Amino acid sequence: MLSALQEAFRHFAVHRDTRATGKEMHSKNWSKLCKDCQVIDRKNVTVTDVDIFSKIK
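User: That's the sequence. What structure does it adopt?
Assistant: Structure tokens below.
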């Protein structure tokens, strides 16, 4: 299970970023992950919440 999770992380971490190593994720890709995985529901979790979290991580 962990390897599938790691692979999903790498997929989003390098999405449209030719310089990415897959070990870190930029805020743009974090937002995409949250949107694609339907974490953002606009009621409990908003785009703003995700953006704030990515800046304080």
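The longest helix spans residues 2-13.
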